[in-house]
Amino acid sequence: MSDIGLKSSLYVLDGEAETEVSNRIRELEERVALLRGVGSLNEDTIRDYYGEKRFEQVAESNAIEGNTLSVGETELAVLKGTTITGHDPAYVRDALALDKALQRLSEMARETKKPTDIDQLLELHDLILGDRPGAGMFRNEPVRISGSNHVPPKTWKEVMSSMEDWERWSKDNATLPAPIRASVLHAWLSHIHPFLDGNGRTARAITNLELVRAGYPPIIIKKKEKDRYIESLSESDSGGDVRSFLELVFEKIDGSLIGLELSAKKKQGYSPVQEKVRRQQQRQFSIWDSSIHLLARTVEHQLQSEVEPIHGKVVVKIFESPLDLDDYLAVCERRSAQKTWAFILDVEIPGFARQARLAYIGYRSPQMFHELGDEGGPALLWSKKNPEGFPKWIGVSHEAPYAVELTTKLGAGDEWYARKIDGNIEKLSTTSLAKQISKSLIQLVTDSK
Q1: In the CATH scheme, what architecture does the domain 15-265 have?
Q2: Which has the closest alpha carbon to 245: 196, 188, 164?
Q3: Which bin fits 5, alpha (ψ -120 to 50), beta or left (φ > 0)?
Q4: Could you state, in order of their start, the residue ranges of all structural domains in the chain?
Q5: What one-character-per-residue DSSP string does 402-427 give?
Q6: Of 362, 318, 321, residue with least CA distance to 338
Q7: DSSP track, 220-254
Q8: Separation CA 375–CA 269 (nearest Å)
Q9: Which of 102, 151, 165, 328 has the smallest set of CB atoms within 10 Å of its CB?
């Protein structure tokens, strides 16, 4: 554990996982060092990247908590301070408060030698809640976390004791890599749930305080990722399994670095021709997004019809809009390798080992790329639970359900191309493909011991 030292009363990584985490951190730190070392982050780059992200960060963090303001409406609310028609006036106050907190966060981040502590936490929480009751104070009554079986500390004394442990870990581990500190402090804070309101926004602010203080760009966990975000935190609550949350944080850091790297290379400009192309790309993206959901639901139906008569159980989890347009274009241009989660198939049949497969989105293999006339685009690939530790999911080929890779032609989501284990590529309808995936996954279950 000497490399990253991820250990507390809650979170521990084994040797295999720690090695993988160390490698991931080393790669991220090299990219940050290159950006800052060559002077790429000039004033124009900073303005280009952070000016665009400022209001998105406020809007998305608030949206996870139910705020309905869009990025544009959030910008208007923050800059003008006016009520937005059709929205709760409290949402404008929340936008103003969070933006103020994030501006203060940027000032705190300049204090590079001061580890995050309770005083900084309470100051940020006070700014985030504004004039609402409980701002800047730990709670003195029990709370329940929606959708979780975890029961946080009940009394002020128990909360305070837990938060002192949290602060002690932060000070004792001040030299750990920022992604590790950001992930642990966030997950631990969510576990304690020390406030009556504002826990999520404050935890996400603490994550970015850690990252920005270490020279990383801030990350944005979007509303569309809420299910995955909450599920990963739930895993850390129930058994100290922080792997999924670590992987989410790593992916968000990678995405923010990609954005910062692109801003460092070019300045953005409007073009009518480009806008027309972008609208066409938006239509193609919408078709792809709908085709994934349709495939997942059709597979779910096929699996249930097969296993329910033999008392089996099927759980299908679909992640809402796993890509946005920028992600989709990055995949089409083969410049993003982030494993964006699409859906999870989990099948259990009495007498056999349970099998789960995660379908994630990457870019097409060279074989599929050439099969479709050198057309770039997204593809579904498969992972299974990693018995060795970190990451939580690992890619599979021979254990993939029916096909190693699945894709559709751009703008045509009703027909799928499936690259099978033997390398052959077949063209199938959504229903036919769902039947094949269902049949193959059941075979994987019955072949297990």
Answers
A1: Orthogonal Bundle (1.10)
A2: 188
A3: left
A4: 15-265, 273-447
A5: SEEEEE--TT-TTEEEEEETTS-EEE
A6: 362
A7: ---GGGHHHHHHHHHHHHHH---HHHHHHHHHHHH
A8: 26
A9: 151
Q: Is 394 exposed, middle or buried (0-12, 13-18, 19+ CB in 10 A)?
A: middle
pTM > 0.70: yes or no = yes
355-363 and 393-395 beta bridge pairing: unpaired
Predicted pLDDT at 241: 83
Helix (H, G, I), strand (E, B) or coil at 323: coil
Q: pLDDT, tens digit, for every residue of 296-352?
A: 999 999 999 999 999 999 999 999 876 778 888 888 888 765 668 999 999 999 999
Lookup: tokens for 402: 């029916």
Structure tokens at 83: 């009520």
DSSP string, 156-217: HHHHHHHHHHHHHHHHHTTTS-HHHHHHHHHHHHHHH--SSS-HHHHHHHHHHHHHHHTTPP
Q: How far apart are CA 136 and CA 298, in angstroms?
A: 48
Tokens describing residue 196: 């009556």
Radius of gyration of the chain (CA): 23
Residue whose C-alpha is closest to residue 1's, from 24, 17, 16, 18: 18
> Cα(first)–Cα(last) distance of the chain, in Å?
33
Give me the phi and psi of 283, to 5 degrees please.
Answer: -65, -45
Considering only residues 50 and 160, tell me which one the structure prediction assigns the higher pLDDT.
160
What are the Cα distances from residue 63, in Å, to 22, 183, 201, 209, 253? 32, 21, 10, 20, 20
C-alpha 188/C-alpha 432 separation (Å) is 45
* Beta-ladder partners of 395: 383
